[in-house]
Amino acid sequence: MADHEDPKTGKKNKGTSKEVCGYPLSIFFIVVNEFCERFSYYGMRAVLVLYFKYFLRWDDDLATSIYHTFVALCYLTPILGAIVADSWLGKFKTIIYLSIVYAIGQVAMAVSAIHDITDTDRDGTPNNMTFHVVLSMVGLFLIALGTGGIKPCVAAFGGDQFGDHQERQRRTFFSVFYLCINGGSLLSTIITPILRAQNCGIYSKQKCYSLAFGVPAALMVVALVVFIVGSGMYYKAKPEGNIMGDVCKCIGFAISNRYKHRSKQYPSREHWMDWAEDKYDKLLIAQIKMVLKVLFLYIPLPMFWTLFDQKGSRWTLQATTMDGNFGAIVIQPDQMQTVNPILILTLVPIMDSVIYPLIKKCGLNFTPLKRMTVGMFLAALAFVCAAVVQIEIDKTLPVFPSNFQSQLKLLNMGNHPVTAGLPGYGQVTLQAAQASEEYFTFEEDQISISVSGPEMKRNISLIKGQRQTLLIPLTISDEWQLTADLTTKPEEGNNAIRFVNGMNKPVNVSTSEVVFGQIEKFHYSNYSQIRNGRATFFLQSGQLSCAFSRDFGFGSSYTFFIPSTLSLGSNCQESITGAEDIKPNSVHMALQVPQYFFITAGEVMFSVTGLEFSYSQAPSNMKAVLQAGWLLTVAIGNFIVLIVAEVAKLPKQWTEYVLFASLLLCVCIIFSIMAYFYTYIDPTEIEAKFRRNVGDDDDDKNDKQRKLEMEMMKRDLDRSDDEHYKGKQTKM
Ligand SMILES: CC(C)C[C@H](NC(=O)CN)C(=O)O
């Protein structure tokens, strides 16, 4: 039998797997598994909201709430996975079983997105939506169970593969692990939206959500297979019974025993957990103390995630009000999120190989908790940048009417100039087929407008908080019409376009993607969303057929006017005039790069370090539990976003960014104080000492000797080292 195997069980011993450049070979399978799993998770997540909205036909609010509930669930389930792994199945089996659950969930999602299954009338839309909703909800539940369940196990299982002599390699492993997470996330967030945009279907073609979910499902199967292939090489730590149950009972006993002995006649004990000594093993008590120490330190951490996870919500919404034209490529608002994994892939190696060694060379002891504090500070700085960008955006946004105001624009549908008299604005002259450049703002409910050339006078009812366009007709006998205009920027950086038909006959308008439908004479169409770039509009009215093209930026709104003079042979490109109701976004999306840079630099210092810290400070039998505790801070952080945004309800977005930055700054100060008093421990060393002393405990020791030993052990618990974990006392 090889010396790296346990003689009794034949299983591998810790740190004895075949090594490549000082790293256990088994690590290779774990990082590839993580890469594929994160591809699967982030790929599916990238198209999820669009699937809810456009396939299941949910409204924005429902789609957003279910999306956030799903994300929160994904970070709550790690607790379950950790308990199962640490106390029952062990990490290896837990990863295998939950990966199967996860893959089934992904397949369920892919199947739920096949519209042909229930498309009995073959019109391209499902006929039994309940089937698709139920299947996708079951799929999402299984995915949340799977991805959350394995998450704390995979990181801790990877850490388990390193022996005590591989401390440095283990630290690098956590960085590489993080790179794989972001490599998978980057690739999938680029690929799955492209897959979704394809058309597929048996009877009728639709956007291919089944492919966008199917590829992540396949990657999850690959992740599972890769993990199983490495099976023979892993060190598999045995689960140590119902450890969570024992921990809870032990804590419960310590509290009740303390309460029973609250009278002054009983001497106090150094730590409240020491009250459990009357019944419980000292080793268990020492391990609980280690975990509680770390969990206490976690209390302020959710605030970091509160800011971090707004990349996907607030910052993406901010990008929708910005200009994404980068010359050769045009970036969509949601694609800005890929800046985060791109920066992670660049910053992690730079930090590990340049910044941290440089800091060390300068003689500074940049301990994990110091890094995390700096990470928090950088995240707060990112939100200050976001606030500055928001202020710039706000300067370019249209001023929409308040609840006490209404706004009116004029459009001359005639072939001759008209002059309109507006209360408070004097005479406004409009050429044929021309609209006023700006909206006029009124506080009255009704105004009287007189038009000369031809002479007309009308009382116009205005609506508070609304924008309208008054269509001044061709002749006195024609009807005066008021349109309802937009009072918000079009969503997702799209452009809202509508047509006013000034001809005496109906006209059909369409582009290759959008149908405006038939617009009756002297009437107007609804708004349709046009993506940025060049769009060509086709007009067709009886014999008349022509086309015209326009370039669009992001977030604009135009009213195109089809003049009464348009006839067979007319040049539409020149004849059709457009009124700019909402200007396109003019603040460039590149301005978001600094905030992405700071949040990602913060993430590298906070999250990569926190992942490794949670592993190194956990007792051997509670590694996965502490990883789950770490992930729980992410879930709580997500809930805080919903609560703060709902409670604060600040009128200006930039003030909300400043609020979040200030909150994190306060939390950062509190954390730095807590961290100052934290002393690093070496759980293995402490556990070994307690184990050595179990035998002695059985002997009949006198009280004095026992007391002396206890003091020594307690001192050990408080020990830390200069380079984090090697033995000398260090704070923070
Ligand atoms: C938020 C997670 C704890 C960390 C990680 N995410 C990223 O790295 C995003 N840049 C993940 O495991 O998904």
Automatic annotation (TrEMBL):
Its main location: membrane. It is found in: Apical cell membrane; Cell membrane; Membrane. It is a multi-pass membrane protein. Residues 711-732 are annotated as: Disordered. GO terms for cellular component: apical plasma membrane. GO terms for molecular function: symporter activity. Residues 711-726 have a biased composition (Basic and acidic residues). Electrogenic proton-coupled amino-acid transporter that transports oligopeptides of 2 to 4 amino acids with a preference for dipeptides. Transports neutral and monovalently charged peptides with a proton to peptide stoichiometry of 1:1 or 2:1. Primarily responsible for the absorption of dietary di- and tripeptides from the small intestinal lumen. Mediates transepithelial transport of muramyl and N-formylated bacterial dipeptides contributing to recognition of pathogenic bacteria by the mucosal immune system. Belongs to the major facilitator superfamily. Proton-dependent oligopeptide transporter (POT/PTR) (TC 2.A.17) family. This is Solute carrier family 15 member 1. It comes from Nothobranchius furzeri.
